[in-house]
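Q: Okay, next protein. This is Leucine-rich single-pass membrane protein 1 from Pipistrellus nathusii. I've checked the sequence twice, so it should be correct. Can you predict the 3D structure?
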Amino acid sequence: MQRSSRDPGARSIPVPEDRKLYVVDSINDLHKLNFCPEGSQHLLPPEEKIPEAGSRSADGRSRLLFLGLVLALMVSLVLVALVTFLIIQTGSKMDNVSRRLAAEGEDIDELKKLNSMIVQRLNQLEAQN
């Protein structure tokens, strides 16, 4: 709102947008009461001019969007925890399999040594006969 030249000491106070509209409507209502004949205009009571904060559909939508976002974040957090758990489990199982393969490899080497010893002994017995 602009300052009038008659009131140099007036200060500019920050006013919310809905309050500005209320002030302008109030001034218009006073003007209509002073200059318009009675009964020519139906004036709204001030309670109907100020919208209630809870009645806005945008607030409901933003709240619903926020709740959806929080729910999506919680679900993604659970999924990340599950994937991490599965990776750790898979890693430990792979370690177990590696240990088994190493142990079986050693067993196979021992069996090869035993096989070669048996073959040598059989060749010696054939040579003696």
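A: Here is a summary of the prediction. Residues 21 and 103 are 84 Å apart (CA to CA). Helices lie at 17-35, 46-49, 57-128.
Q: Noted. On to the next one.
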